[in-house]
Amino acid sequence: MNNVFHDWEHMIKVYLLFLGFILALTSAATGQTSAAELLVLEKDDKSLAIIDPSSLKVLDRVDAGEDPHEVAVSTDGLTAYITNYGAFNIPQRTISVVDLASRKPLAPIELPGLRAPHGIQIMGQEVYFTAEGSKAIARFDLSSRAIDWVLGIGQDRTHMLAVRGNRIFTSNVNSNTVDIIEFDTKPDISGCKLTVVPVGTGPEGFDVSPDGAELWVANSHGGTISVVDVAEKKVVQTIDPHTLMSNRLKFAPDGTMVLVSDLEKGDLIILDAKAHRETKRLSLGKSAAGILIQPDSARAYVALPRDNSVAVLDLRSLSVIGKIETGRGPDGLAWAARDH
Asked: Which CATH class is domain 34-339?
């Protein structure tokens, strides 16, 4: 019996070694290995920093155009699209493009008639963005290389944008409103229904809960958070996290928590997404701006523009575990994951 057992044990070990060998050969033959990079816009240096999330070191920097504010990555993880804003100086009319594989800038996307692009999101082959200076949102089709859809919002400072299924959400800073724009299937001209929802003062950063039921809006001038029932299209609760100037707000992908950055005080406020109350408050520096949470909800990255760095947080222990030294004025963040 012992000999039979050892024979089977030996055969299993040989099989596992053989399987590992075959997998290694397959990976080598196809060249498919998983890679992820953290992208940080250094606004005052007009550059995009490409960072290794393991070592927390800057791998390279690429020109990001004039006054870069927000960045989004193509679904294949190969290209970054950066809004060139300029609304407080000279409104820009371009989206900068960066090839992440070669780490080189490509020809920018020209936006004739659309001023001060800011919020941006990519869905498949479509780039959605706000044109704050034109009181509009628009879409650039990557296949046709043309703007194929523009919707006038008519609100002041339409700043940030999120696309969720057949809905688009925007925040309108100076109108103290958010928009819920609904479509029959996907965003197009026909079947469009726009609902303007009054919220607090100076709504800027916002996010939609993973289940799509709630829209949480950080009111940058009022220091509150407006919780909007998406189905009812109205504010159902106001939370006061005691911020001086809330800048960005993000749900963790697993739906457990909400992170809010305070641009003036440098705090990060962590709230329980279900209980709607504060869990923890972290002092990160002189100011806190852009927030990015990893897809697995394990880590968060918070841009600290006046400290020229990005704080790295462990979301399980709710503690700071590292800091990335960047160029001047880090703000917009994105995650670039691809197979190569």
From this structure: mainly beta
